[in-house]
Amino acid sequence: MAFLFPVLSFICGLILANSKFSATLKSWLSLLLARLFIPVVIIYNMVFYKSGSIALILFAFFSCFILFFIYLKLSNDRLASLCFSYTNMAWLGFPIAIAIFGIENSMAMIPLYIGVSIFGNSWAVTSVSSAPQSRLELLKKMLQSPPVIALMISGALRCFDVQHFQNDDWVNWMYTAAKWSMSFAGMCVLGMWLRKTKVYLDDLVTSSKLAVLKILCGVVLCTLAYLFLPVPHIHEYIGVMFLLFCLPPAANIVALETHYQGTGISAQYIASGTIVSCVVCVIYGVMVYLLS
Length: 292
Fold this sequence. Notes:
Na+/H+ antiporter like fold, mainly alpha, globular
């Protein structure tokens, strides 16, 4: 069921893409995903904190920075470097993690998502904007992002000793509903988005080469993390951590690019990268299944 549900949600998105209300539905599902479902999952997991979450947040954050500057050194293109480093954790990451690792084992995605989101909200605007961004503006954007707000709410709730609520049925029901809704919304939006995007063979070849480079970087960074990162039971998380390097560029990069540069070059990177990433994630999921 954990595997079939994201697939069925994706197919649902492909079907709904041709409906007259698809644009409105996509907008609402994206809004609910970013502002409600993911924050609820973050708050639950951070309130009922598991040791190692802070280390995973830092791992994701610094991994994105390392990927950004590796590709910037190779390409001298800040937009392409952002597409290489800022990954789609919301629409694609959570549903695929749930499909491969199951609901409970995939929850390491929460701190990883927070780390990537902090990177995106603090660095993405700087990368696509021609005007310099002050540190105060970057800090404001980061603090106003839903994952960081959810993290602050979690910290406030922990001060009131609410950990005993974890066993309450209504809390578990709300958390379960948010997890499944998150998976449905993410894959459904992805299906609607891909149905309307044209991708050419050259784009797929370029994205395939980038995927190989990103996976190689992931092997090195995950190996170093496994050996030196102080995360309890890291052997349980390392598979989910590696998934970070299999995911495509974040979809909101094109919105930022359009706003600040008036162009939409990253749309091709994102579309072709998403298709290649889906293939990579399927191969990765099969390997995890065969090795488990």
